C-alpha cells in the first residue's frame, strides 16, 4: 500500500523521539514510511525526497530535527504538502534551539510546529489532516478524543476514592 504519511528525521538519534509519531500512525492504521534525511549531511537526498513525496502519494510530511534544525523548513520550501515540524530536544539547549529553528518560518512557507519532543502530537495532527478527507478516520479521531476524556474522568474518580 502507498504510504500516506512520510516521517523523516535528520539522524537516527532522533528515532527514540520520532517513534511516537510512528506509533500513532500504526494505532490509526495509516500506512507510513520512515526515512533518515539530513538537511546538512544529505542535502541532495533531502531535495529529492521533498520534490518527489507528493508524486508518490504522500499527503503529509512529519519532519523531526534537532539543533540547527533546518530540515522541516527546507522540506516545506520544496513541497506543496503540509509539513509538521518536531523540534528534537538537545543536550546543550534542551531543544529550544530546535524549536526556534523550526518555528520561525518566513511568511509564505509554513511549518506546523509542535512542542519540543512532541512527535505524538505531530502524528495526531497528520492523522487529523488525512481525516478531513476520510469520514471513517474522522470518526476514529472522535473516538480517540472520547477515550482521552474518559481516561481523565477515570483518574479523577480514582483520586476521589
Ligand atoms: C540534527 O542533528 C539531527 O536531527 C539530530 O537531532 C542532531 C544530532 O545528530 P547526530 O549527531 O546525533 O547524528 O541534524
UniProtKB/TrEMBL annotation:
An individual GO BP term: 'de novo' IMP biosynthetic process
> What's the gene?
purE
Q: What class of enzyme is it?
A: isomerase
**Role description:** Catalyzes the conversion of N5-carboxyaminoimidazole ribonucleotide (N5-CAIR) to 4-carboxy-5-aminoimidazole ribonucleotide (CAIR).
Keywords for this entry?
Isomerase, Lyase, Purine biosynthesis
- The entry's protein name is N5-carboxyaminoimidazole ribonucleotide mutase
Q: What are the GO MF terms of this UniProt record?
A: 5-(carboxyamino)imidazole ribonucleotide mutase activity; lyase activity
The residues that the entry says bind substrate are: 11, 14, 41
Please report the stretch or stretches of sequence annotated as the PurE domain: 3-152
UniProt-listed PANTHER family? PHOSPHORIBOSYLAMINOIMIDAZOLE CARBOXYLASE, PHOSPHORIBOSYLAMINOIMIDAZOLE CARBOXYLASE CATALYTIC SUBUNIT
Metabolic or biological pathway? Purine metabolism; IMP biosynthesis via de novo pathway; 5-amino-1-(5-phospho-D-ribosyl)imidazole-4-carboxylate from 5-amino-1-(5-phospho-D-ribosyl)imidazole (N5-CAIR route): step 2/2
Q: What is the lineage of its organism?
A: Bacteria, Bacillati, Cyanobacteriota, Cyanophyceae, Nostocales
Pfam families in the record: AIRC
Catalytic reaction list: 5-carboxyamino-1-(5-phospho-D-ribosyl)imidazole + H(+) = 5-amino-1-(5-phospho-D-ribosyl)imidazole-4-carboxylate
Protein family per UniProt: Belongs to the AIR carboxylase family. Class I subfamily.
As recorded in UniProt, coiled-coil segments are none
Could you tell me the superkingdom of the organism this chain comes from?
Answer: Bacteria
What EC numbers are recorded for this enzyme?
Answer: 5.4.99.18
Amino acid at each position: 500500500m502507498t504510504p500516506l504519511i512520510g516521517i523523516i528525521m535528520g539522524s537516527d538519534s532522533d528515532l527514540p523521539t520520532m517513534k511516537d509519531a510512528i506509533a500513532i500512525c500504526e494505532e490509526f492504521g495509516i500506512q507510513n514510511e520512515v526515512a533518515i534525511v539530513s538537511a546538512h549531511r544529505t542535502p541532495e537526498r533531502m531535495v529529492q525526497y521533498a520534490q518527489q513525496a507528493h508524486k508518490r502519494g504522500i499527503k503529509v510530511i512529519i519532519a523531526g530535527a534537532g539543533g540547527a534544525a533546518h530540515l522541516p523548513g527546507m522540506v516545506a520550501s520544496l513541497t506543496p504538502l503540509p509539513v509538521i515540524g518536531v523540534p528534537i530536544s538537545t543536550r546543550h539547549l534542551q531543544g529550544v534551539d530546535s524549536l526556534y529553528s523550526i518555528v520561525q518560518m518566513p511568511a509564505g512557507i509554513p511549518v506546523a510546529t509542535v512542542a519540543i519532543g512532541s512527535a505524538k502530537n505531530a502524528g495526531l495532527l497528520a492523522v487529523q489532516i488525512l481525516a478531513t478527507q476520510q469520514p471513517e478516520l474522522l470518526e476514529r479521531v472522535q473516538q480517540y478524543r472520547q477515550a482521552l476524556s474518559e481516561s481523565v474522568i477515570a483518574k479523577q474518580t480514582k483520586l476521589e476514592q
